[in-house]
């Protein structure tokens, strides 16, 4: 397991609690890792923004406690919604934690990567299909919490990436 972070100075403070990272990136690796996420991560690091990104974390059935703590210890979470984001239980667990942290004043910034925000919000298309598959397999309350987290996150004003780069100005 390898974790990658870039450390730098940041002058922004959103809470009184000390935070370990300025930004936590949540994304579906197979959709975005080699292009968009790599460029976003590098741009944030070049600005001196201490950013957490996983680098081929070992995936298990459930998200690790350590990763949940990383989300909690971040000032900002950037969620990059892509076509296969909802098919990953790992991504959905991250999202639920991010939305929980938003209620504790963490800034959450969604990016809709070649996907319409209404598809995420209304859980249609690939998002609806993925959630239905999760419901068939899991048969528990977890999927409902994921649905609520998707709805809430998709209602946050964010950026829509569609065949061009999006520049995020965080600081």
Describe the model:
The chain has a single domain (2-161), classed as Rossmann fold, CATH 3.40.50. The chain is built from six helices and six strands; from the N terminus they run E-E-H-E-H-E-H-E-H-H-H-E. The chain has 171 residues and is α/β, with parallel strands linked by helices. Helix 1 links the parallel strand 2 (21-27) and strand 3 (51-55). A six-stranded mixed sheet has the order 1-3-2-4-5-6, with helices on both faces. The radius of gyration is 15 Å and the shape is globular. The two termini are 30 Å apart. Residues 19-171 form the TIR domain. This is TIR domain-containing protein. InterPro entries: TIR_dom, Toll_tir_struct_dom_sf. It holds the Pfam family TIR. Keywords: NAD.
Order of helices and strands: EEHEHEHEHHHE
CATH architecture name: 3-Layer(aba) Sandwich
The CATH superfamily label reads: Toll/interleukin-1 receptor homology (TIR) domain
Tell me the number of strands. 6
Strand percentage, roughly?
Answer: 15-25%
Q: Tell me the domain tally.
A: 1
Determine the N-to-C terminus distance.
Answer: 30 Å
Q: Low-confidence runs (pLDDT<50, min 5 residues)?
A: 1-5, 8-16
Can you tell me the overall shape? globular
- The helix count comes to 6
Strand order of the largest sheet: 1-3-2-4-5-6
Find the structural class using helix and strand composition: alpha/beta
Please estimate the helix content.
40-55%
Task: Write down the overall mean pLDDT.
Answer: 83
CATH class assignment = Alpha Beta
Protein name: TIR domain-containing protein
Pfam family, one: TIR
Organism: Castanea mollissima (Chinese chestnut)
InterPro entries: TIR_dom, Toll_tir_struct_dom_sf
